[in-house]
Structure formats: structure tokens, C-alpha cells
Amino acid sequence: MATTKKLRKKKAARKLAAKRAREAEQAAAMDSAMLQDAIAQFSAMVGQFGADGMPLEGEPPEFGWTAADYEAQVVVAEMRESRDHSERQRLAKKAIGISAHCADALIILATESDHPLEKVITELRKAVRAAADQLGPKVFETHPGYFWTLDETRPFMRAMERLAFYVAAVDPRESIEIYRELIRLDPRDHQGNRYELIAHLIGEAMDEVAEALLAAYDDETGAMWTYSRALLHFRREGETDASVLTGIRALKSNPHVPALLFADQPPTPQVDSFSPGDENEAMLYADICHPLWKYTDGARTYLRTVVERSTLKTV
């Protein structure tokens, strides 16, 4: 019996490995036209809206919000203030009782309950649909680029962000498309969706699109951007003087990252906030991107070379 179980496990492992290999091949063979389209979109974002976005021109959009929708948001504000799980659940249900379109409440009920992942995703899709119905279709046609700046769009953006985060575990490509749509709607990216997106693009071997995203936010100096730029440079041309120099620039932006990437398993971050260059930023970066360095052949050896050739004493 034990032997049979071992054989089954080995077969399952082989099937999983084959599946991942096929997925990697499909990612590498992604249609060139799609790649170029994605690159063009990202490159146009900052050029179209500028680093600080564009002022809203003309009349503000008409939303489909009702008095009940606005009333429900008052309850949502109270819900956000509460740190008690039961109270947050109670207030979420109260908000939905006032307005069935209250996406913020639907998000809480989806993500702060003991649902399996599939159920969480299903409920978040409902939240996205509810928020979209609440806005009405016209605003998506007339005001892309101004989402989040317009308060009424924020529940939709929050619902989309949560859906992208959770769906990544089962379908990274869908997650990527959701994050790209969020950035299209809000090129200033108030939610910071570009940080999750860059990691998923690299993880899915969409390096050209990742390079375009880096270029679209070229003034970024945080670890997520500098180390992603270094990893992509290495993946593009291997360990060269130029790629090592890019790595040294990343090292100078945050010297705490390499030690975490060299570890078999980095520690779980205990905080969500950080200052540029500090250990918290390094931990948050490693928590997301450690696998990218671990499973890119030669990447950690390259990073050791970067550390050795840098004047910084970090590891």
C-alpha cells in the first residue's frame, strides 16, 4: 500500500512538472502582436497622463449612484474604523441591506470570512459587477485615466484589486489582465497595483511587457523597481558589466535585499509600511519576489557577484 501511494505521488509530481513546463512554453511563445500591444499601452500611459495625471476637463461624469448607495458608504466608513471582526461583519451586512451594490461591504464579507479560495473569488467577482453596475457603463468610456481621482470609482477599483490579488493563485494571466486594466483606468496608480503586476509579469516570463512597465514609471527608485530592473537585465543578457552595474544600483537603493533573496525562505513581513531603503521594504520585496530570483537560473549567483563588486558591505 505504501509503495502504491508513493508511486501515485511521483506520478502526480511528474504531471505537475509537465503542466508547469507546458505553461512556461506557452508563456514564452506568447503572440508577438499581443506583446507589442501591451508594450505600447504601458509606454503611452505616462506620456498621455503625465507623472501627475491630468486635470479633469469638462463636466464631471454622471454616475448611476442612488441616495441609498451614498448612505451605505457612511456605514462603510464606520466599518473601516472598526478593528473588531464581528462588528465589521455586522456593519458590512448593514451596508448591503441599505444598498445591494455596496462593493466595499461585499469585499469584507468575501475576504474576511472562512471561505475557500474559489468562493472568495466568486464573491469578489460579484463585488466587481455590483460596483460596475453602480457606476454605469458610460464612465468607463468617457473617463479612463481619471478613476480613483473620482471618489465614486474607488469601490470598483478596490474590488478589482482584491480580485486580481486572489485570482493570481489560480490564474496569473487573468490577474495580470486585471492589474493592467486598473492601471489603464488610473495611470497614476494610487493603489500601487504596478508592484504586484511587475512581479506577475516576470513570473509569467512576459519580460518585454515588464520592461515596458518599468519604463512607464521610470522615476521609481524603490526596491521593487530597482531589483526588478536588475533581474530583467540579467535575464536579458546574463552576467555582464552592464547588468552588474544595474544590480549595484539596486543594491544601493536597498542593501538589505540580497541576504533575504539568498535565504531558502525569507521571513514573513510583519508590517505593511516601510521607508525607502529600510529592512521592512526589503522584507516586503522578498516576500513577493524571492521565487523569481530562486527559479531564474543563475540569478542568485549573479546577485552574489553584484554584492562582491559593490563597495557596500551587505552580506
Q: What does this molecule look like?
A:
With 315 residues, the chain is an all-alpha fold. Helix content is 69%, strand content 0%. It has 16 helices and no strands. Helix 8 (154-167) runs antiparallel to helix 9 (172-185). The relative contact order is 0.08. Residues 1-10, 27-32 and 45-53 have low confidence and may be disordered.
Fill in the keyword field for this structure.
disordered N terminus; 16 helices; elongated; mainly alpha; 0% strand; single chain; 315 residues
Tally of separate helices: 16
Main β-sheet description: none
Molecular shape: elongated
Quantity of strands, as a count: 0
Strand content: under 5%
Rounded mean pLDDT score? 86
Q: Evaluate the radius of gyration.
A: 22 Å
Taking the alpha carbons of the first and last residues, their distance comes to: 48 Å
Order of helices and strands: HHHHHHHHHHHHHHHH
Binned, the helix content reads: 55-70%
| Poorly predicted sequence stretches spanning 5 or more consecutive residues | 1-10, 27-32, 45-53
Structural class: mainly alpha
What would you say about this model in short?
The chain has 315 residues and is an all-alpha fold. It is built from 16 helices and no strands.
Give a topology summary.
Blueprint: H1 2-28, H2 32-49, H3 67-81, H4 85-98, H5 103-111, H6 117-135, H7 138-142, H8 154-167, H9 172-185, H10 193-203, H11 207-216, H12 223-237, H13 241-253, H14 257-262, H15 279-294, H16 299-309
Helix pairs in contact: 2-11, 3-4, 4-5, 5-6, 6-8, 8-9, 9-10, 10-11, 10-12, 10-15, 11-12, 12-13, 13-16
